[in-house]
Amino acid sequence: MTQAYSSLALAEPLKRAVADMGYENMTPIQAEAIPVVLTGKDVMGAAQTGTGKTAAFSLPLLQRLMKHENASASPARHPVRALVLLPTRELADQVAQQIALYAKYTKLRSTVVFGGMDMKPQTLELKKGVEVLVATPGRLLDHIEAKNAVLNQVEYVVLDEADRMLDIGFLPDLQRILSYLPQQRTTLLFSATFSPEIKRLAGSYLQKPVVIEVARPNETASTVEQRFFSVSGDDKRRAIHKVLKERNIRQAFIFVNSKLGCARLARALERDGLKTAALHGDKSQDERLKALEAFKAGEVDLLVCTDVAARGLDIKDVPAVFNHDVPFNAEDYVHRIGRTGRAGASGLAVTLAASSDARLVAEIEKLIKKKIELEPLQLEDERPRGRFNDGRRAWGEGDAGGRGAHAPERRPARSSGSSAGGGSSYHRAAVSRDPFFERPYEPSAAPEAAPSWEAAPRSGPVRPGLSPNIKPRRKVAALFRAPLPETLEH
C-alpha cells in the first residue's frame, strides 16, 4: 500500500518543495526509511537503484535541521551540520541539486565540493557557512587540510553508494574523514547492494543500525526488460543500430569497459549520424558536466560511458541501456541497467555478449539468480557508413553494399577447432601468388660473364703490396712545397 508525502510530519516549507517537484506517493524505501531517520536512529538501507534513496535521507535530514534554521549572515551561525559523502563527481552534483530543491523554501544552506574543479569557488562557499555539505572524499580531505571545512559540529553523516566507494579504494579516506567527526552523531548508510565489506564498515561506524532491505540484495528492477544477444565483437555496433531502429529508441546509455573503447565507439557512432557524447574518467569535469546536461536536455541521443556513470545518476525517461561490453564486475550490471526503468517506469536493458564473455555472463546469472538465455540476433548486410578502428590496428570501412572498395580485408575469425599443438589458430585468408615465383630453378644456357670488376683490367702501375681493386689516392698539386726533414749530422 502506497503512502502519501502529506502523511509525513514534515515542515511546511519541505512539503511545499515536494509538491512543487510533483511527488505525491513515497517509494518503498522512502516509506520505511523516512520515519526511522526522523527518530534519529542509525540506518543501513538497501534498495534497488532508482527507487528514491536520495529523498529517503534528504527529507528527514532537512526536517531535523530545521531547528538550526536562521537568517543570520554570519558564517559562525551556519556550521556544517550534515555531511553527505558520495563516490563520483556526477553523483555528488546530482544529490546536491536535489537537496537544494528540497530546501529552497527554507533558510538552510547547502553546497557541493568535488575534484576536477578549482578549489577557490568552493572555498568561498564554505567560508560563507553551510549546514549541508555534499562531497566526494578526496576533495573533502583537501578542504579539511586547508582549514576550509570544520566538521566538529556535524550531527548527521550519510554514506551513499558505500559499496562503490569501497570498490574504488576510498576506505582509508572514509576512515580519516570519520575521525574528524564527533562521536555522537547519526550515521546513515545507503547502497543498492550489500557485501560483507559493507557490513563490516557498518559494524565499525554505525551504532545499533536499523536494517531496511526493501528488495533482495542485488536484485534488478522488475520494470526493466532484460535481453541478452549473442553478437561477435565486430558486429556489436551494427546490433546497436538494429535495436535502436526496431524499438524506435530516441535516447540510451551505452556502457563500455574502457576509456579508450568509450572514445572510439562515440566517434564511430557520431560518424554514423547519431548525436553522441562520451563520458569517462579522462574527460575534464567541465566536459563531463556539459555532456550530462546535453543528454538531459535531449541535445544528445546516445551517451557512451564507462562505469563512472553507472552509479546513482538520475536522468528521467531514459528508455534503454546498452551493455556494449559485459561488465567485469557482476554487481556493475545491476547498477548499469538501473539507469533505465526508474521510479516505476518501464525500460529496456540490452547486453551484447561475444563468445569470450561466457564467464562474465555466468557471473551475472549467479548474482541476479535468473536464467539468462543468449538470443541470436539477425543482422542485415548493410553496415554503418564511415571508417572505424576495430581496436586491433585494423581499419574498416562500411557502405550500403558492405565494405568499401579500398578497405582492407576483414581479419579472419579464430577457428573453433584446435591446432596440432592443442592451441587455437587462425585461418589465413587466400593470397594471390605470381606463377613466376612458383617455377623451379632453371640454370641459364649461356656461360656466365665475368664480373665487371674482373673483366676490365686496371690501367696504370700498381704499388707493391696493394690490392688491384683499391683505387690509389689522386695526386693533387700543392701550393707550397713541403720542407725536407733536417738530417742529423754526427
From TrEMBL:
Pfam families: DEAD, Helicase_C. It catalyses: ATP + H2O = ADP + phosphate + H(+). GO terms for molecular function: ATP binding; hydrolase activity; nucleic acid binding; RNA helicase activity. InterPro entries: DEAD/DEAH_box_helicase_dom, DEAD/DEAH_RhlB, DEAD_box_RNA_helicase, Helicase_ATP-bd, Helicase_C-like, P-loop_NTPase, RNA-helicase_DEAD-box_CS, RNA_helicase_DEAD_Q_motif. Residues 235-383 form the Helicase C-terminal domain. A motif (Q motif) lies at residues 3-31. Residues 442-459 have a biased composition (Low complexity). The keyword Cytoplasm applies. One of its GO terms (cellular component) is cytosol. PROSITE patterns: DEAD_ATP_HELICASE, HELICASE_ATP_BIND_1, HELICASE_CTER, Q_MOTIF. GO terms for biological process: response to temperature stimulus; ribosome assembly. Residues 383-396 have a biased composition (Basic and acidic residues). Coiled coil: none annotated. The keyword Transferase does not apply. Its EC number is 3.6.4.13. This is DEAD-box ATP-dependent RNA helicase RhpA. The lineage of its organism: Bacteria, Pseudomonadati, Pseudomonadota, Betaproteobacteria, Burkholderiales.
